Amino acid sequence: MRPPSIEDVSEQKKLFVVYQPIVDLKTGKPFAYEALVRSRSETFPDPPSILSAAIEARAMGRIGRVIREIAAGECPDAPLFLNIHPNELDDSWLVRPDDPIFSHEHPIYLEITESVPLTHFKFCHGVLREVRSRGANLAVDDLGAGYSNLKYIADLNPEVVKIDRDLVAGLKPGTRLYRLVASIVRLCNDMGALVVCEGIETYDEFMASRDAGAQYGQGYYFARPATPRPMYDWKKLSNPPPAR
Question: Which single residue of 95, 170, 214, 220 could bond 197 by disulfide (Cβ 3.0 to 4.6 Å)?
Answer without folding.
Answer: 214
